[in-house]
Amino acid sequence: MEKERTFSLDEISLLSILWDLLRNLPLFFLAAAAAWFAVTGAGKLLYVPEYTATATLAVNARGSTSAYGSLTLTNQMASVFGEVFTSDVLRERIAQDMGVESFEGQISASVIEETNLITLQVTGPDPRETYLVIRSALDNYDTVSDYLFSNAVLRIVQEPSVPYSPSNILNIHRIRRLSMLGASACVAAAVILLSVLRFTVKTREGAVRNLDGKILGYIPYERKVTSVKELFRKKKKSILTGSPVVSLAFSESIRKAATRISHHMKHRNQKVLLVTSVGENEGKSSVAANLALAMAEKGKKVLLVDADLKKPAQYRIFDRPEGAKAWFSDYLEGNANVGEVLTYNKKRRFYAVYQNNGVKSSGSLLDSGRMKAFLGACRKNMDYIILDTPPMGLSSDAELLMRQTDTVLLVVRQDWTDIRIINDMADVIRSGSADFAGILLNAFRKDIFEHASGNSYGRYYGRQERGGIREG
Fold first, then answer.
1. Phi–psi pair at 438, nearest 5 degrees
2. Cα–Cα distance between 425 and 410 in angstroms, integer?
3. Cβ–Cβ under 8 Å, residues 430 and 180
4. Alpha-carbon distance 176 to 185, whole Å?
5. C-beta of residue 418 within 8 angstroms of C-beta of residue 200
6. Distance between CA 326 and CA 341 in Å, rounded?
7. Residue 310 near residue 357, CB atoms below 8 Å
8. Are 448 and 294 in contact (CB under 8 A)?
9. Could you tell me the sign of the dihedral formed by the alpha carbons of 114, 115, 120, 121, in that order?
10. Rg of the chain, C-alpha, whole Å
11. For the segment 231-268, what is each residue's pLDDT rounded down to a tens digit?
């Protein structure tokens, strides 16, 4: 039965969110560009310019010499005149005067409060027609108003003019900017939400809570490139413990993990360790290589076997000695003996078997009698045998090899593989004949606001960390 997911705030990694935002920067630009084009297109399709002609009129009682004489009476007259200008009768009269059946312009009249002034406006799609309508209204209003008033007169205070620019100006630039910001904000919110909800190992607390297996250690993220010059080099350097360019935090975390694994294997009288992962690029090949180096530092006879016949990587991590006469697949196919594939690294003091290219029939070769004979012979002469195998989620080779190994180490990269898949693979390991040593968390970055733990290693880790392994 699938375990129900629980969510806690300590599983949120601000650094993961930041990296997701940076990785999705092109989406921000695409969203902003889409909003820009959408607003521009909608503006061109939907925007209809309107032109407004305006005139100001004053209502006076006949015989009055003051514009504001009997203000109460003239204000009432102004209200009635406003209704005259908006009446259908005057509209028909204007159409007859212009020689058309109807016109599109809208006529409005409003009385300025506490005055006898009327603001007359005509709004329409054509500036010339708008002006002609308002002129005709001024010329013909008396044909309607004379039926209502005989003691009032209108005086033009401000003459109308032909409108040269639209009255409903569309601030397209401001709308574009707001829409671009809105679209980018929506993309950012979606990226943040998906980053938070993505069920991967982002923090140590989340790993402890959600992973179904013993956690053997945390390998900090280690930069492969430390300068601009190295960025343009074709050959990438390998990140190996003991190297002067590798951080102390990284080297110490590898040695601690190797000590725990050695302790686990020693108490169970085990020799063969299978190193795998769920997916690609989680760093299992580099972890296997560094564990071999860390165990060899303690004077143990260690054999590192590149059993990833799908996509071998150890020959790129180490420079294969010139004395090697054959690859591992040559031995498994019966074209070489153990002595021809086995090499010894004098500088690092460990033994290795390399492979240079992928093999189609890798499963049958690894599950063959020659593989069993190879491991049987090596068990007699080696203290530890480390097998670098293909990812479990991509190949069945690792499962086939588990029948011949003692214990299994699962490498999990930070914020990489879905936790539910990791736990499913852990169940597969436990259901087999091999022992499950546990999980090693790789390429762990220190979060932005993460504080070092209370123990001495936590403080040391916080001072020294530069970053993990990304190969394999």
1. 145, -165
2. 9
3. no
4. 14
5. yes
6. 5
7. no
8. no
9. negative
10. 41
11. 555 556 688 988 888 899 999 999 999 999 999 999 99
What percentage of the chain's residues is helix, strand, coil (to nearest 5)?
Answer: 45, 15, 40
Q: Which residue, among 102, 127, 75, has the nearest Cα to 135 in the 3D structure?
A: 127
CA distances from 143 to 82, 107, 146, 323, 379 (A): 15, 17, 6, 116, 118
> Given a cut of 60, is residue 1 above it in pLDDT?
no
Whether the pLDDT of residue 102 is over 80: the answer is yes
* pLDDT band at residue 470 using 50, 70 and 90 as cut-offs: very low
How far apart, in whole angstroms, are the C-alpha atoms of residue 149 and residue 252?
103
Cβ–Cβ under 8 Å, residues 52 and 161: no
Identify the pLDDT of residue 67.
45
C-alpha to C-alpha distance for 442 and 470, rounded to whole angstroms? 8
- Tell me the residue type at 222: E
Per the listing, tokens 């143990």 go with 300
Q: Which SS3 state, helix, strand or coil, does residue 343 take?
A: strand
Distance CA 114, CA 388 (A): 93
Match 């209704």 to its residue by tokens: 83
> What's the pLDDT score for residue 300?
95
Residue type, 420: R
Both structure tokens of 313: 């990587």
pLDDT, residue 68, reads: 44
Residue 246 identity (one-letter amino acid): V
**Structure-derived torsion over alpha carbons of residues 178, 182, 188, 192, reported in degrees to the nearest 10:** 140
Dist CA 187 CA 27 (whole Å): 7
What does 351-405 look like in DSSP terms, one character per residue? Answer: EEE---S--TTHHHHHTSHHHHHHHHHHHHH-SEEEEE---TTT-SHHHHHHTT-
Place of tokens 């040269």: 164
State both tokens at 311.
Answer: 């996509």
Q: 169-182 pLDDT, tens per residue?
A: 888 999 999 999 99
What does the alpha-carbon distance between residue 432 and residue 245 come to, in Å, rounded to a whole number?
40
Residue reference for tokens 């969110």: 17
Phi and psi (nearest 5°) for 439? Answer: -115, 135
Backbone torsion region of residue 24, taken as left when φ is above 0, otherwise alpha when ψ lies between -120 and 50, otherwise beta:
alpha
pLDDT digits (tens, 9 = 90+) for 374-394: 999 999 999 999 999 999 999
Q: Is 23 exposed, middle or buried (0-12, 13-18, 19+ CB in 10 A)?
A: exposed
